Amino acid sequence: MRTSEDVFHLAIPAADLDAAQEFYVGALGCKLARRYADRITLDFFGDQVVCHLSDVADDAPELYPRHFGVTFRHREDWERLLRLARTRGLTFFAEPFHRFAGRAEEHETFVLADPSNNLLEFKYYDDPRMMY
C-alpha cells in the first residue's frame, strides 16, 4: 500500500526539453532530479513527472479528458502559485474561475499550458473532504 513516503509518477511528452525545463524548473519552481538526452525527471510538488522528448504534441489541447496538476490543501498555497504564474507570464489555458458554487465540491481552479501543450490544473476546495 502507498505511504506518504511514496510518490506518484506521471510521464508526459515534451517537444523541447530545454523549454520544458525552463517552464517546470525556472517558472514553476519544480526541482530537476535528472536530465538525460531524451528526458528530464522532475520533483513536481512532491510527485515525479518525467518529460520525455517526443514529436507527438497536441496542437489543440482540450482540458478533458487529459490534464494533471495539484489540488492544494491550503488556499494560500493555491493563491501563491497563481501569483507566481501571473508574475512570470505563464500561459493560462483557463484563467482562474470558481466551480460548483453552493455545492460540497465548490472550488477555485486555473489551468496552465506548458510549452508542449500539456495542461496543468491547480485547484483549491473550500471543503478538504472534496479533495478526492
What's the quick description here?
The chain has helices at residues 17-27, 75-87, and strands spanning 9-14, 31-36, 39-44, 47-53, 68-72, 92-99, 107-113, 119-125.
Main sheet: which strands, in order across?
1-4-3-2
- How far apart the termini lie comes to 17 Å
Mean of pLDDT: 95
| Helix/strand order | EHEEEEHEEE
User: By helix and strand content, what is the structural category?
Assistant: alpha/beta
Number of strands: 8
InterPro entries: Glyas_Bleomycin-R_OHBP_Dase, Glyas_Fos-R_dOase_dom, VOC_core
Protein name: Glyoxalase
Domain VOC: 6-125
Pfam families: Glyoxalase (PF00903)
Characteristic terms for this protein:
alpha/beta; Glyas_Fos-R_dOase_dom; 132 residues; 2,3-Dihydroxybiphenyl 1,2-Dioxygenase, domain 1; 2 helices; Glyoxalase; VOC_core; four-stranded mixed sheet; globular; 18% helix
Set down the secondary structure blueprint.
Elements: E1 9-14, H1 17-27, E2 31-36, E3 39-44, E4 47-53, E5 68-72, H2 75-87, E6 92-99, E7 107-113, E8 119-125
Parallel strand pairs: 1-4, 5-8
Antiparallel strand pairs: 2-3, 3-4, 6-7, 7-8
